Amino acid sequence: MRRVATGESVNHTIRVAQRGTRNAKRGTVVAAVIAGSLAMACSSLLGAEPTPVPGAAATLTRSINTPIPTPVRTAVASPAASPSAGRVAASPGAAPAATLQALSDSDVADLQQRMEQSVAAPGLPGIDGLLLDHVSLSTPGGGSVMSGDEAAHWLRDHSASGIKVKQVDRGTQAVSLQVQTDGWPSKDPIQQGLVTFSLRRYDANGRQDETGGGQWKIDVIEVE
User: Fold this and answer.
1) Bridge partner residues of 200 (DSSP)
2) Could you tell me which of 216, 102, 222 has the C-alpha nearest to residue 170?
3) 3-state SS class at 31
4) Taking the model in full, what pTM does it have?
5) What is the domain partition of the chain in residue ranges?
6) H helices of 133-198, where?
7) Given CB 3.0 to 4.6 Å as the disulfide criterion, which of 76, 119, 158, 191 pairs with 163?
């Protein structure tokens, strides 16, 4: 009885061993299948090319071949200075430069001729029409203001033959002329025989006119 039990035990052990062997072989096969599947999947992932997107290659080519335009910068003109900013206010009493009338050579020649005719004779003919209604007289002893008639009388009283126009100068500060005469007798207050007449343009109301209108008038007499 003991032997039989022993034989059955051996047989049982053999069957268990065989079953384990078969399970081990089955596990080995499954593992090999799984490993093969993984290898194939990795190979497909690494070797497969990406699916091309329609039109992508053409778009990329056009973007490479198309030159990038250079931005054009337009110069912006700086705002012009306001004309009023550059203007300088005229000093009070000064006539606008646009209204000043420059002296011409004909003006000078005409005044010189009239003065020569006025002082050529002792009676000073025509001097009255050249005198302003009020005249400033400047002498070595002082100065005074006379009316036009008083100035004409004073000049005749101090005149003599041989008086001549020595020179004519243009004024520097206004539109004026200075006519210097000599040959006057040395009669007080005349000391050197020189009398200078200053002339400017005046309108009919006796106001100074620098626009080229009006008439030339003697307004200052200087005696030396």
Assistant:
1) 176, 217
2) 102
3) helix
4) 0.55
5) 1-40, 100-223
6) 148-157
7) 119
